[in-house]
Amino acid sequence: MKFYIILFLLFISNFLLYAQKTPKFIIKGIVFEQSGEAIPYAYVRLINSKNNVLLIAGITNDKGTFNLNVNKADTGSYKLTISFVGFSSKTIDLTINENKTIYDLRKITLKQTDIQLNETVVVGERKKMQSYINKDVVIPDSTMINSSMDAIDLLSKVPQLKVDRINKAVTILGRENVLVLINGIEKKGNSDFKSIQPNDIDRIEIITNPSAKYDAEYTGIINIILKKKFKQGLTGDIDLNYYGLRHSEPSISISYGFSKIRIFANYSFYFRNHQQNSLETRISKNNNNNFKYNNEYISENPLEYGHIFQFGTDYFINDKNTLNITGNFMYIKENKRALSKTTTYQNDSLTENFESNIYRKGNYSMQNYSIYYKKDFHNPENKFTTDINFYKMNFVSNVFYTDYYLLPSFPDNLISRKIITNDDKYSINLKTDYIQIIVKKISLETGYNFYVWNYKNSTNENYKTDKFVYNENRNAVYFNVLWKLKIFQFITGVRTENTNLLINDSINNKYLHFIPLFGIKYNINENQIYRFNYKRNLSRPKFNSLNPYFYQQDSLNFRVGNPYLKPAEYDFFEFNYSYNNDGFYFSPSIYFRKGKYIFGSQITQIGNIRYVKNENIAKSQKLGLQINSSITFFKFIKINPFLEINYTKIIDNTINNDGYSFSFSLSTELTLPKNSFMGIDLSLPEKYYYLQGYTKDAFTVNDIYISKSVFKKSGIVSVGITNPFNNIITYTYENFNNIETNTKDIIDFRMFFIRFIYSFSRGKEFDSLERQYNMERDK
Q1: What is the domain-level CATH number for residue 415?
Q2: Are residues 376 and 508 in the same domain?
Q3: Which residues are paired to 509 by β-bridges?
Q4: Cβ neighbour number for residue 88 with a 10 Å cutoff
């Protein structure tokens, strides 16, 4: 703790010393395209005209503005050069004299460069990736946009991101808990992606060291920023897809824009039927008394189907005030059957043989409403935002077990069990954030978060009812300070969370957490940077881990929760180098992660019966290397490889577990003639270690596809196959206290698919007002 206090005081002292300096000259301006749209992240340099020595350099922010604070400069002639990939550079002659301290160049316009190739005009584009102190910003190029069927498809082509096209999920490679935002607003469900067309996306922010603004559970943030332009009139798209008899989710999205109001809605039908099987073998050796447990679980027609609906409106009150209101609804029914076969052996002699026929039916309903408001001030960098979110969910499940005992034999060897589960959840989440520029290149961000969560579970098994009631109130305040000192950028901040948990009206757990962070960035040149980041994270226990009642898998396996579990804490250190030039991105990172109060399973075996209870029983250390890269060959082949190698050690009073892990993923896309594209995604996930063992997924080719634009690029057709060579297989291995367990889980995801999306637009583009977005910034 002393180390963090000393480190924080050093940063504050540097901050105060720097804040007292007054620049000798200030040069500022705004960079635009010919269309009138601002150019973010343009490169600005001030050069001495006599000796061509670079005096100072900088970049424009997301509004296209720049401020060069010149502390040392002689009077005389200088050249100010503004450049951006795909645009002609512009040089402005400046004469600096002692009688003038502020040079306001106002509006600076850059011209796009056009290259004529075989009667096809290729227009220069913005640099595809920019690296900042705690994030990378990816700007989709025309190839990414034209080859993408929807927003989730475009994200699959972005370096560092891992996309599950079937489940419409996206995460950051190498990060465990990632939050997805759209224009700074938390994504409420898969429907949010359906209302976004690839051409709507301006840039994607990949934040690998989230500031104190975000909940301490998140180790990464994906912020999808939409273009400021929207259609005044009717727009929409129709998505038709077929994944054999396993999966389908057709949808339709429409929106209508007026001068200040945009309304939107989308609907999708949800259908799934994925077979899931598992095999488990457990061997216990104790004083020449060997016990073996075998279980095979076979799902039969695991059907899920339902409806998903979203609606909302964007109201652009004026150029400084915007309001967004969104509602989400989901209703899913499940109807599943499964067969569980169990045998046990004592010293190689069969002792038990029984089967369980399992029939599960239930329904899930969810509704979610959010209101988001943003206010800009005279200084465009100063912003106030507030977000109110209400969530309600109900899940009712009826599970019928029929256990048939073949051995041992007894008169009534048929036992029936019925478990009725009713889950009710609701939450209210209020967030307010404010950004204030203190002095040039120094900004303060602060905010408050109030969170209420209520969960009620009622489980009735054979007319015996257990109830679990969970109430959580959490208050959080935070601040971040961002500042720039020549070629260095700094961020420091702290988040304070006060949590009050009440379980079953009798168990009261209170936690106070201080969550610090720090980051520094060093610019080597325009294409190379070094970054160092530190952040503390929390991992909160899930409801199932807290429920203190016994759950029976079968007559030999029981699990019980622990209402006294407290959040696990992790300290994460990362050193990163990034090289980014046109067509080539290379970013290796070395990281160290140290954890305490780690969740672990306390396993007790009484005779042949196994009892599992969760405890805060372990510490962990993880040292690793990650390499992210993106390479373009011959302008029509693009590959995004990712590699991670790490060593994990988990320590407890009685058990130690450690080992090495390797993971790899690769996505490749080829641009073919006649607006066609072909791609392949494959992955080898890492081995995940925990106290008693590890889990690992088998190597898979996720999908192979070919796509073609049709109807003058208003539509796109894609055909392909997912997991063509094997199913999704997860292996689990445990070995402790003379008990060795092997588990193999199998999900049948091999599917041929065909998909067609058609987008339509009737109206004109309108860009005088800006849709809300609240994102991480560098100052």
Answers
A1: 2.40.170.20
A2: yes
A3: 501
A4: 12
Give the chain's length: 779
- Joined together, the tokens standing for residue 320 give 């400084």
More confident residue, 523 or 544: 523
* Average pLDDT estimate for 665-687: 89
Mean pLDDT of 584-589: 92
C-alpha 369/C-alpha 392 separation (Å) is 9
Instruction: List the structure tokens of 773.
Output: 């977005």
DSSP string, 673-728: TTTEEEEEEEEEPPPEE-SSEEEEEPPEEEEEEEEEEETTTTEEEEEEEESSS--E
Residue 61 sits in a domain whose CATH number is 2.60.40.10
On whether residue 716 sits in a domain, the answer given is: yes
B/e letters for 432-465, b = 16+ CB within 10 Å, e = fewer, are: ebebeeeebbbbbbbbebebebbbebebebeeee
User: For residue 259, what is the DSSP state?
Assistant: S
With CA atoms as reference, report the closest residue to 453 among 501, 421, 498: 501
Q: How far apart are CA 320 and CA 695, in angstroms?
A: 51
Cα–Cα distance measured from residue 580 to residue 629, given in angstroms and rounded to the nearest whole number: 9
Q: Does 142 score more than 80 pLDDT?
A: no
In angstroms, the Cα distances linking 42 to 33, 67, 285, 507 are: 11, 12, 67, 56
The answer to whether 296 and 279 have CB atoms below 8 angstroms apart is yes
In sequence order, what DSSP letters do the residues of 556-568 get, joined into one string?
TEEEE--TT---E
Tokens, residue 33:
């395209």
Burial of residue 655 (number of CB atoms within 10 Å: 0-12, 13-18, 19+): middle
Q: Are strands 185-186 and 161-164 parallel, antiparallel or unpaired?
A: unpaired
Determine the Cα–Cα distance for residues 205 and 169; give it in Å rounded to an integer.
16
Dist. CA 623–CA 97, nearest whole Å: 54
DSSP string, 614-658: EEEEEEEEEEEEEEEEEEEETTTEEEEEEEEEEEEEEE-SS-EEE
- For residues 31 and 8, give the distance between their C-alpha atoms in angstroms, rounded to a whole number: 36
Query: Is-contact 257 285, C-beta < 8 A?
Result: no
pLDDT, tens digit (0-9, with 9 covering 90-100), for 205-244: 999 989 999 999 999 999 988 876 556 788 888 999 888 8
Is-contact 253 310, C-beta < 8 A? Answer: no
Asked which of 65, 87, 114 is the last residue of a domain, the reply is: 114
Q: What is the mean pLDDT of the chain?
A: 83
User: Would residue 167 count as lying in a domain?
Assistant: no
What is the CB neighbour count within 10 angstroms for residue 622? 19
Tokens of 381: 């960098």
- What sign for the dihedral angle of Cα 93, 96, 97, 102? positive
- In whole angstroms, give the CA distance from residue 739 to residue 27: 71
Q: Is residue 96 part of a domain?
A: yes
Examine the fold and report which residue of 91, 114, 137 is the final residue of a domain before the chain moves on: 114
Residues 257 and 109 in one domain: no
6: left (phi over 0), alpha (psi -120 to 50) or beta: alpha
Which residues touch 448 (CB under 8 Å, ≥6 apart)? Answer: 431, 432, 475, 476, 477
Domain tally, the chain: 2
Token look-up 């010393």 returns 17
Would 451 be classed as within a structural domain? yes
d(CA 503, CA 111): 63
**Strand 178-182, strand 169-172: pairing:** unpaired
**Domain coverage including residue 737:** 238-766
Question: 162: which 2 tokens?
Answer: 């891992």
